[in-house]
Specification:
202 residues; alpha/beta; 5-stranded parallel sheet; 16% strand; binds adenosine-5'-diphosphate
């Protein structure tokens, strides 16, 4: 893939439970935006397949899937959407949710994605965050939200491995959004931070 043929992308960035998925699903209502959530891509795979089993072995412990495997699955997924015509790179902006999640993933994807904007969904209150994740576990079938030690591990992995991803992007590209607000207020701030950064033609 050549440099000018990279996927135009917006990164939804933030710790587990910061509301990336909620915002991504809403943004994807615009015809020119496609929401790609790495966790959803993994969860949609056949659980009996080799990759499906490998994913579960990491996710249930609150660990990240190894970088090379993650990027391979991501690229194959995007390429199949391009082939089927569901993504047209001259029209769509990708809303990336949960990828890249390590600095190695940033490097492995540097030839493929062109990050126009990073939206950093910030939650400072760790107790509120843990309460959100426990609540999510009750509503959806998320093995990785099931117990406190797994949640704490994910927050630690986020701080150690994912937060440094921010350093890979110029400060002017990063928008900080207070994610400790009702979802509509977060959406308003997210929308505000995107105006002018994605194609106006929908
Ligand atoms: P979260 O709410 O933690 O952001 P996700 O639904 O994004 O959850 O991801 C669920 C699990 O999928 C993660 O705990 C991890 O095991 C795996 N996963 C998702 N995205 C990545 C990624 N970019 N790199 C490695 N593992 C990932």
């Amino acid at each position: 893939m050549s440099a000018n043929n990279r996927y135009p992308s917006i990164l939804l960035f933030g710790c587990p439970g910061s509301g990336k998925g909620t915002q991504g699903v809403v943004l994807a209502q615009f015809p020119n935006m496609v929401h790609l959530a790495m966790g959803d891509i993994f969860r949609a795979m056949d659980k009996a397949s080799e990759i499906g089993k490998e994913f579960l072995s990491y996710a249930t412990k609150g660990q990240l899937v190894p970088d090379e495997l993650t990027i391979r699955v991501f690229r194959a997924h995007v390429e199949s959407l391009i082939e089927s015509g569901d993504i047209d790179l001259s029209y769509h902006t990708l809303i990336l949710d949960g990828i890249p999640r390590t600095t190695t993933q940033v490097e492995l994807l540097s030839d493929a994605i062109d990050v126009k904007r990073v939206i950093h969904l910030m939650i400072d209150d760790k107790d509120a965050l843990i309460a959100r994740l426990m609540n999510r576990a009750k509503k959806s079938n998320r093995p990785d939200d099931a117990d406190l030690s797994v949640i704490e591990n994910r927050i630690e992995v986020y701080e150690k491995e994912t937060h440094p991803v921010l350093d890979a992007y110029p400060k002017k590209v990063i928008a900080k959004v207070n994610a400790d607000q009702p979802p509509l207020a977060v959406l308003r701030d997210v929308a505000d931070s995107l105006v002018g950064f994605i194609s106006a033609n929908i």
